[in-house]
Amino acid sequence: MRILLSLMLASLWLASARGEDRPAQNLVVHEWGTFTGISGSDGTPLHFRASLNDLPSFVHANGFRLKSYEESSVSLETPVTYFYAREAMDVKVKAEFPQGRFTEWYPAAAVTRDAGTAVIEWPTVKILPGQKADLRKEDGPGRYYHARAANANLLRVASGERFEHETFLFYRGTGLMALPLKAAFSSAVTVKVSNQGSHPISAAFLVRVHGKKLSFERCAALEAGASAQVSLASAKEGVDTLSETLVKTLAAEGLYEKEARAMVATWRDAWLEEEGARVLYILPTKATGAFLPLTVAPVPDETVRVMVGRQDLFTPEQEAEFKRLYADLSQGSPETREQATKAFQALGRFKDAAIERARALDKPRP
Questions:
Q1: Looking at the chain, which terminus has fewer C-beta neighbours within 10 angstroms, N or C?
Q2: CA separation for the pair 359, 327 (Å, rounded)
Q3: CA dihedral defined by 82, 254, 197, 280, rounded to 10 degrees?
């Protein structure tokens, strides 16, 4: 009878633990993140300034916020890493970014480069299940704080003579590399998406925001080397509809629901409200590991890592306008040059990409 009672109590504990995102295993590591690239309407990759001025001042950065100055083909934006342990323990964490550079991180970490690969290390991360701390928070942009909505364990990391606390490890960067997915317009409402990587892409969503109205269509999984045509001719509509679809898709990859909702809340405005056309695509754990290797010691009992790639692409209509503006910059009157300059500046971090594309289109064909 006592044995049966003990088993019943153990089962109840395990059920409640899972309900609160606490693992039955000794250590579970979950990570989500996103990265952005941009291309011309024909899929030609373009370069852009990856600056995102949306972080609190306590986040560590390289000397002069290098992300604001570097021209990149990819902006690595929010890998956040959660830990769930049954008991307090120390872990060592190391992430690598081939052909990239880490630009911001929190808590304090050691950041180096080795033969073109960026390396970020947290030599000792103390996992403190069941404990709480006053986490730092500032007025201003709130994108960073959405990640705290996941029910992960508190972490403590030494920074000089003091400690920094957070419920995840955060890091960002920039890079110059080929991305796994290529997207190109094949008609006014149809985009060809191609998996150029060596691992499957779980799902992809063609998204277009025009006049604050969102339309989207889902593409099935793409095996390595596969392509598909995705049309918006009979697309679904609505930011809330796509938000919920993304949450369910991320949870199906193994993230806890609270983690998936935290990710979508973090990037909802950028993914689903910014004007333009883009493809959002899901890299599961194995593909994420190839793109951004992660090592945790001791080895976790479970590791789930999911990345969402954001591939923006200029429409043919935008490119025609860029070409006209570029001509105004070089040949127009002072007034039209000023107007063209303001029009390019209004594109924000994609300004340089638009000028690069206009310059390429302006060249006479052989």
A1: C
A2: 9
A3: -90
